[in-house]
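Please, structure for the following, as tokens.
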Amino acid sequence: MIPLRDNAPSKKFPAINWLIILANAYCFYRELTAGSPSALKHIIDRWAVVPPLLFHHGEWYRLLTATFLHGGWLHIASNMLFLYIFGDAIEDKIGHLKYLFFYLFAGVVANFAQAFMTPSANIPMLGASGAIAGVLGAYFFFYPYARILTLIPILFFITIREVPAFIFLGIWFFLQTFNGAMALSTQLITNHSIGGIAWWAHAGGFMYGILLAPMLGSRTSKYR
């Protein structure tokens, strides 16, 4: 399912959300213009999350810096789409400054969750997905009945439907935890670190958003 827009109310211009999107775009531009594969590798190795470097060398800054790196055009495009659609409503709900710290700390918590679940993984972890998952968790709490215009592929056909937020995000969260459990099981069986999507960062960020949201505002009643 791919979200196209939501109908949650927004009164203020989401300045912080746009600044975060621009910051991600700038960092991705720096990756694209690194000059050589070795220079790009140096950037990733320097700023992405590598669990052993956290737990054995105390390089905790990586939990934050990794949220502004991405592994390709599809990676950043999908992340920024989700942030664009859901972030403005949360910024409007809790205010600009609170939203900034909420987002940044969501990225830290999400990346730590992934590192905690895969402490021996040597594959760099990067991306804004965990921080955005925190935004989705807050959206799930504040706007459960908002309608999400969603592109849904069904076999060889594509349809567009309005889906309630609690269904859209509930399915999304289930897929993250299920895939995370499958990846962890495979790792335990094979005793090898597995690359790919940081499922536990998504699940951890989402739970952070749900748990912190009640401290930042009240749930919006049902509306159309």
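The longest strand covers residues 147-154. The chain has a mean pLDDT of 84.
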